């Protein structure tokens, strides 16, 4: 001790724990000497509740998890413009109409066997192998006829085609293809069409095309007998 007054000696802390409630009580105060007497000056109590802290941490963690889950749900619910466009394109692709196709060919090989009957002015229009157009797969729209397909193919490929409408038969009659007309190779010559191996006995603009049809335009020099038309052969 000095003459100057009380002197602080140290700080003392007392802890007590209650196991049932899991609480810790801590008393903290300074010890001061004055003469032969020691004084406890002031003091404060700190109550720590482990259970409350644990509950607080648990609640905070749950709130954070719920917030993260809501945020993830929001992100999943919002699609980017690119994703929306891809989904839209997928729907458009699924709604597209299927393609309808058939095959078509044009040949005049019978002229090669009847060259002597051919008009000399037409010889340059006859291919050396007789094929004006080999078998080609083309698209068509439902309801189109053999005439429609021939007309479009000739227009797209630049092959000459000449036809006339015959009111008596309510149908188009094909007079010439690739500058080769009826009667150019004899009085029984001209163009005929065959579908799937059969020669229809009506106009080409009345025959509606079906998927997979094989259409053949063939030049005959003998009213169909030389190209396998059994009906004409009888």
UniProtKB/TrEMBL annotation:
Feature: compositional bias, Basic and acidic residues: 1-10, 45-56
Annotated region described as Disordered, given as residue ranges: 1-99
Start and end residues of each Transcobalamin-like C-terminal domain: 143-220
Polar residues composition-biased segments: 74-89
Signal peptide annotation: none
Protein name, per record: DUF4430 domain-containing protein
